[in-house]
Write a structure and sequence with these properties.
This protein folds into two domains: 72 residues, no CATH class; 182 residues, Aminopeptidase (3-Layer(aba) Sandwich), CATH 3.40.630. It contains ten helices and eleven strands. α1 packs antiparallel against α7 and α4 crosses α9.
Length: 274
């Protein structure tokens, strides 16, 4: 299935929930209207400390942009740098969630499909936790973040501050969810082996963060978490599962090659943004 038969989902960065998240971490969301098409996109503005200027972000807009209006906003807020596509991946993978589970599994690489079954046979249990539940359960939320943080350090990639993660959870509420892989031990608290975090738009599910212990990786828990994230997205009647970036050949993103192989194992189509 090519990109022309798969509807582009409303991008994560162009949702009211993401605007709320950006507001919580210090950015000012401004709506840029395209009156001709009756749509709007968000531009996010942040004042540079101790200086009279700002920076802005306008990424993956909805429909055509009124660039004259953008120019007026840039002048009003003294935006010296407008970030468009520099801070988002130029390539990603989309999976069509309108397919049946059988079709989705059939499109995966054999090893990925095998590892899903292997994780289940090894006794891993899955819990789906939406944002409201995570906000109400601080111990699980803290353990989940710690798993994500350690994973970022292991891979030598950016690790967001915990307050940013909690801002995402709070802003998205029931429109985000974590998939937690647990191992139950007799008479003991369940051990968290892996977890994935997803945020959603009106029609898309976006793979945002993941983490796992060494033992969780040996048990193939991250593969099962990703598959269960797809299943939850299907239950929510979403159309597209977006892996939110794969290696695009640039030197800057060389460290993405490993988890790009992981993501490509789930099938789907490679999408290139111009």
């Amino acid at each position: 299935m090519d990109r022309f038969t798969m509807e582009s989902p409303i991008d994560l960065r162009q949702t009211p929930e993401y605007a709320e998240y950006m507001s919580l971490i210090g950015w000012k969301p401004i709506k840029v209207f395209s009156f001709q098409f009756s749509v709007f996109s968000y531009i996010y503005i942040k004042k540079i400390p101790l200086l009279p200027w700002s920076i802005g972000k306008l990424q993956r807009p909805v429909g055509p942009i009124d660039w004259e209006l953008v120019a007026k906003i840039r002048k009003k807020y003294r935006i010296i740098k407008l970030i468009t596509e520099e801070m988002v991946a130029k390539k990603t993978m989309w999976v069509d969630l309108r397919k049946s589970e059988k079709e989705l599994l059939g499109a995966m690489k054999p090893k990925t499909r095998y590892n899903i079954g292997l994780a289940k046979r090894r006794g891993i249990k899955i819990k789906i936790a939406n944002g409201k539940w995570l906000m109400a359960n601080s111990n699980t939320r803290n353990n989940f973040f710690e798993l994500l943080h350690k994973n970022s350090k292991r891979l030598n990639i950016f690790s967001m501050p915990q307050k940013w993660f909690e801002a995402q959870v709070k802003a998205f509420g029931e429109k985000c969810f974590g998939v937690l892989a647990l191992r139950l031990r007799s008479g003991q608290e369940a051990e968290l082996l892996a977890g994935n975090f997803f945020m959603t738009s009106r029609d898309g599910c976006f793979y945002a963060h993941n983490g796992s212990t060494e033992w969780g990786r040996k048990l193939m828990a991250p593969t099962l978490c990703t598959w269960e994230g797809m299943r939850e997205a299907k239950r929510r009647k979403l159309k597209v599962f977006d892996f939110e970036g794969i290696y695009d050949g640039s030197r800057v993103l060389r460290r993405w090659r490993g988890f790009t192989r992981f993501k490509k194992g789930f099938g789907g189509e490679e999408i290139i943004f111009s």
